[in-house]
Input
Amino acid sequence: MTQASTLVSMMRDSGGAGNSGASPGAYSITSGKGGVGKTNITTNLAFCLARRGKRVLVIDADLNLANIDILLGLSPKYNIQHVLKGERSLAEVLVRGPGGFRILPASSGILDLFSLDESQKLFLLSEMEEMARDLDFLLIDTAAGINDNVIYFNLAARERLVVLTPEPTSLTDAYALIKVLAANHSIDRFRILVNMAASKAEGLAVYRKLAMAADRFLDSVSLDYLGFIPKDAKVTEAVRRQELMAEIFPECRASRAIDELAGTLIEEAGAAGDGNFFWQGMLNL
Ligand SMILES: Nc1ncnc2c1ncn2[C@@H]1O[C@H](COP(=O)(O)OP(=O)(O)O)[C@@H](O)[C@H]1O
Ligand SMILES: [Mg+2]
Output
């Protein structure tokens, strides 16, 4: 047993007060194609979970496109390098979003998690463990496509929310992502969310097309339909204003759909109650 895994099992066994050290429900929000709405879904979902009393951390794992801090008009001061140098705690690096959910910004060099040495990983792990005790949900906003970084975060998460839209290319790209995760990494369960649907019927039709392709060509993969989010001009309006739709337009259709999704995730978190060790997966120990 390596030193790192010894430490991990010690921490796992020690439990602790409060929520007894249980790790948070960790969900990746992911897609084959960019621009399908992952970042909007992640941030609004985080807000809705927080409004329902949950403690939420969002990891912005997409370094290519519009970052969450920009989307929300926030300006992070520190990054994960400050943590590794011992200058700041992980908690100090986090940025507070609307409604109180927390964000680990993309600028914090999350990609460097790959290249840390053992002692740095151990140090970061203890910092993360400390923080995980105070969390109910961890949402990871991934980049689009099938690069190492996307795969890495999808493997670290307990559940994968694959977002697609009625556009045919979004369907084929979602299928390609699922295929890689299933065939190369033995992931067999995916949650499917159809964004920008014109109606309930369209959402279901898009899901069915994907499910049919998976049934035919991918053995043992199960795709659960988590529902749809309607196409809603309020999404774009909120983005333009650098504010959160669920906060400024709580009654619009898209906000209501995302709040419903928050309710679903809370229900299933209550039912799951497992001791899945998220941070260990993140740091590859
Ligand atoms: N339900 C929706 N209705 C209308 N427009 C949407 C919806 N969801 C997302 N959008 C728009 O799509 C664009 C891409 O969204 P974004 O969340 O940045 O996608 P991703 O993170 O997947 O690249 C944004 O301009 C956003 O306003
Ligand atoms: Mg994005």
